[in-house]
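Entry 12.
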Amino acid sequence: MTGRGGDGRVPEGTARAEQPIIDAGIDPQEMAAALAKEREEGTMDPMQAVRSRSLFRDYMIPNLERVGLVTDRVRPQYLEAGFLEAA
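Predicted 3D structure (tokens):
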């Protein structure tokens, strides 16, 4: 992940990606280990990624756009990931 300065670091004072997981009472290292094990054993539900992507694209992105949080800075990444369609 590239920080706002383009140097790969997250700017000081910015919440780390794992903070919401910690706030929910989940140990990020334990979660990562469990996901890695599922991936390794092939026990992950292959449709889960499709459902998650659809939820993000069909529900979250429109709401983020509605409140003005899909900015010019993040729009290219959402387009590249397939969450948005080019206008």
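Annotation: The CA atoms of residues 16 and 77 lie 19 Å apart. Residues 14-44 form one domain.
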